[in-house]
Amino acid sequence: MKAVDINGVQLKWLGHSSFKFSFGGKVVYIDPFQVDETEKADLLLISHGHYDHCSIADIAKLVKEDTLIITTPDTTSKFAGKVDGGKLKLARPGESFSFGGIEVKAVPAYNINKDFHPGMNEWVGYIIKINNVRFYHSGDTDLIPEMSEVKADVAMLPVSGTYVMTAEEAAQAAKKIMPKIAIPMHYGRIIGSRADAEKFKKLCDFCEVKILD
């Protein structure tokens, strides 16, 4: 998988909805799933409890004693006795966190016309501010009204359809957010293909799109 440098932050897509941020000696992961990485996390963000986003096997190999794990309340039973190290903080939409110069805000992520990710579950995406760059990882979501309030320089958006937005809907989301850079995700492993990412790129003629596979 490719990495891209954005204002001193090395951003690497790890497949599906997994990303790694490396900067200033710190490492942040979002939703690690079936990853080959071994570098330990300083901060680990989980968007919701589905197995392809809250993978305990992956989390267990990436945490160290002082890793901060920000996750949703529905995941806590999965961690019990299975992850050695790390400190849990629970995220709900609208909550903010600060950690070692990193600012994190949890934002809503849910389905509108399907039942895979109900709004009542209070699952989240994240806006992460590093080196004055705002990265938006939408989590598993449809095109939702709250995206109009998202201010981000880089937007990571799902494009596979079925459980999340289609490429067309993701392009509409990007149009609402107007990031400098948009990155397609949630394809190539469980559902979706590079064709979805390419379609998304073609539709986003208003911003730069980086496909990181």
Describe this structure in words.
- The protein has 213 residues and is α/β, with parallel strands linked by helices.
- The chain has a single domain, classed as Metallo-beta-lactamase, Chain A (4-Layer Sandwich).
- The chain has four helices and 14 strands.
- It has helices at residues 56-62, 76-79, 167-177, 194-203; strands at residues 3-6, 9-13, 19-23, 26-30, 43-45, 68-71, 87-90, 96-99, 102-108, 124-130, 133-137, 154-158, 181-185, 208-209.
- The chain has a seven-stranded mixed β-sheet, with no helix packed on it. Strands 8-9-10-11-12-13-14 form a seven-stranded mixed β-sheet.
- β3 and β4 form a beta hairpin.
- α3 crosses α4 (194-203).
- The chain starts with a strand and ends with a strand.
- The model has no long low-confidence stretch (mean pLDDT 94).
Q: Layout of helices and strands, plus pairs?
A:
Blueprint: E1 3-6, E2 9-13, E3 19-23, E4 26-30, E5 43-45, H1 56-62, E6 68-71, H2 76-79, E7 87-90, E8 96-99, E9 102-108, E10 124-130, E11 133-137, E12 154-158, H3 167-177, E13 181-185, H4 194-203, E14 208-209
Parallel strand pairs: 4-5, 5-6, 6-7, 11-12, 12-13, 13-14
Antiparallel strand pairs: 1-2, 2-3, 3-4, 8-9, 9-10, 10-11
Short description:
By secondary structure, the protein is of the alpha/beta class. It has 4 helices and 14 strands.
Supply the key terms.
213 residues, alpha/beta, Metallo-beta-lactamase, Chain A, 7-stranded mixed sheet, 4 helices, 14 strands, 15% helix, 31% strand
